[in-house]
Multidrug efflux SMR transporter (Haloarcula nitratireducens), 107 residues
Amino acid sequence: MSWLLLFVAGLFEVGWAIGLEYSDGLSKPLPTAGTVLSLAVSMVLLARAVQDLPIGTAYAVWTGIGAVGTAALGIVLFDEPATSARLLFISVIVFGIVGLHFVSGGY
């Protein structure tokens, strides 16, 4: 269950990171509220997950999910470059997340 909480926390991290773009420097009330809510949910779920998972592993996975998701949505939503090198390094992060999951006893 802790791995599921951690995964969902990572998705909410993507939500608040993308929300920063839509909130225009936290100047737009509705996107700002969504950003703050996503940040709070992400932190609460991370805190719950680290009750059972090592903090180093959980934090690395959480930030990795956030980085991969935010980079992917940046490409899709904001026309950020999708170069071969960028996609390669994003995939390296994915392999790191999966690797940490398996060597930490996650299934």
The two ends are 10 Å apart (CA to CA). The chain has a mean pLDDT of 96.
